[in-house]
């Protein structure tokens, strides 16, 4: 393993066009799961100038709930903060193309008297954890998320005036001896009110930067490597400036490129889709392995076949940081957690309307909300099980 290197990750805000689409798709998932915990949903959303297009397959009251869902689309856009000429929650045209789920898919996924519930699709999923931050996340993506999250809070409560919803961040870190050493550069691009210069915007967003990253990592960051709106102007933004699609920010959603990604998006999918639920399970396992002290890094891969309940493979890679044999960890995982789709859903309580909260600022490294059940995969309740392996 290289010990000295430079690595970069980026994030995008809740107002980025792709994230607006993710939020709306996850709202649709929450809507149907709130009515039926076992609803099936696969929703895709397109956003562009004053238009939202919903399409996908649902097992639920898809026709009866049309107007209710369209109103919830407007509520999402209003909550994000879009009241602009080119994209306004009140005026946006919502086209609705949700329809019933394919009977062929349902047949393969549903449980029956002689088979358990199968995976909703084939594919590979990855989970990752490391000791770079207290949240056991890679530092560059975690800090990139935090900058934008604090900017959004300040925009909404009025403490950071002049900011609009669409924004992006990028953090480049220098590592020494495998640990974050200092920030090499930061890029923040944010939509803003007419008349503000890049220098004005820089003054507005700098408090969010300083609150997001430990001061000792920022000490050598010079002004030449701190870029804010480097194109000069960012007034037209959001879906009016760039079309958004569900599932187009999968690296932002996970580990910022610090770990592999199986390729499947999360948003808009109910938890029978292992693209989502098994990725959550893999993070849950990796985080508990690292928290148990078995390694300081851990990557887990799971694979599934559509209609088949048990994973086809379990792979553990600790990048040489392990103090226990990786094959032993692999063998223990199915004893510690049932990794069938049903087992994952029940262990992580995924049949609840918790998904809108995941649509921006990453699906991982968040706080487990015990009250709502959101981000249950961030819990550390398997630490004692993994410690027993040592």
Produce the secondary structure layout.
Layout: E1 5-12, H1 17-35, E2 40-48, E3 51-59, H2 66-80, E4 83-84, E5 87-88, E6 93-100, H3 103-109, E7 123-130, H4 139-157, E8 163-176, E9 179-192, H5 198-212, H6 215-218, E10 226-228, H7 238-241, E11 244-245, H8 250-253, H9 274-291, E12 297-304, E13 313-317, H10 326-336, H11 341-348, H12 383-387
Helix pairs in contact: 1-2, 4-5, 9-11
Give a description of the structure:
This protein is α+β, with helices and mostly antiparallel strands and 390 residues long. The protein is 33% helix and 24% strand. It has helices spanning 17-35, 66-80, 103-109, 139-157, 198-212, 215-218, 238-241, 250-253, 274-291, 326-336, 341-348, 383-387; strands at 5-12, 40-48, 51-59, 83-84, 87-88, 93-100, 123-130, 163-176, 179-192, 226-228, 244-245, 297-304, 313-317. Strands 1-8-9-10 form a 4-stranded mixed beta sheet. It has a 4-stranded mixed beta sheet with strand order 6-3-2-11. The longest helix has 19 residues, at 17-35. The two termini are 24 Å apart.
């Amino acid at each position: 393993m290289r010990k000295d290197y430079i690595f970069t990750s980026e994030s995008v805000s809740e107002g980025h066009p792709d994230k607006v689409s993710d939020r709306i798709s996850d709202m649709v998932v929450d809507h149907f799961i709130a009515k039926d915990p076992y609803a099936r949903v696969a929703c895709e959303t397109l956003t562009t100038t004053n238009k939202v297009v919903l399409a996908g397959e649902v097992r639920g009251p898809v026709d009866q709930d049309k107007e209710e869902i369209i109103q919830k689309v407007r509520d999402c856009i209003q909550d994000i903060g879009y009241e602009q000429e080119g994209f306004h929650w009140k005026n946006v045209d919502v086209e609705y193309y949700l329809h019933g789920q394919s009977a062929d898919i349902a047949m393969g996924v549903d449980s029956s008297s002689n088979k358990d519930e199968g995976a909703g699709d084939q594919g590979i999923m990855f989970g990752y954890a490391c000791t770079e931050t207290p949240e056991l996340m890679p530092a560059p993506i975690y800090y990139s998320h935090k900058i934008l999250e604090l900017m959004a809070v300040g925009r909404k409560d009025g403490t950071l005036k002049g900011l609009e919803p669409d924004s992006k961040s990028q953090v480049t870190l220098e590592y020494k001896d495998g640990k974050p050493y200092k920030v090499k550069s930061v890029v923040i691009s944010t939509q803003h009110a007419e008349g503000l210069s890049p220098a004005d915007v820089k003054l507005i967003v700098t408090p969010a930067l300083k609150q997001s990253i430990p001061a000792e990592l920022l000490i050598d960051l010079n002004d030449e490597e701190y870029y804010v709106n480097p194109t000069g102007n960012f007034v037209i933004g959001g879906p009016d400036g760039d079309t958004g699609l569900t599932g187009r920010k999968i690296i932002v959603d996970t580990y910022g490129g610090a770990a592999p990604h199986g390729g499947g998006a999360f948003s808009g999918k109910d938890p029978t889709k292992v693209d989502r639920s098994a990725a959550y399970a893999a993070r849950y396992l990796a985080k508990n392995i690292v928290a148990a002290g078995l390694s300081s890094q851990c990557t887990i891969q799971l694979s599934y076949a559509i209609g088949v309940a048990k994973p086809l493979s379990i792979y553990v890679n600790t990048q040489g940081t392990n103090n226990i044999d990786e094959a032993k960890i692999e063998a223990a995982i199915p004893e510690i957690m049932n990794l069938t789709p049903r087992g994952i859903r029940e262990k992580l309580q995924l049949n609840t309307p918790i998904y809108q909260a995941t649509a921006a600022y990453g699906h991982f490294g968040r706080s487990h909300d015990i009250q709502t059940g959101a981000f249950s995969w961030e819990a550390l309740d398997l630490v004692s099980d993994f410690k027993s392996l040592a």
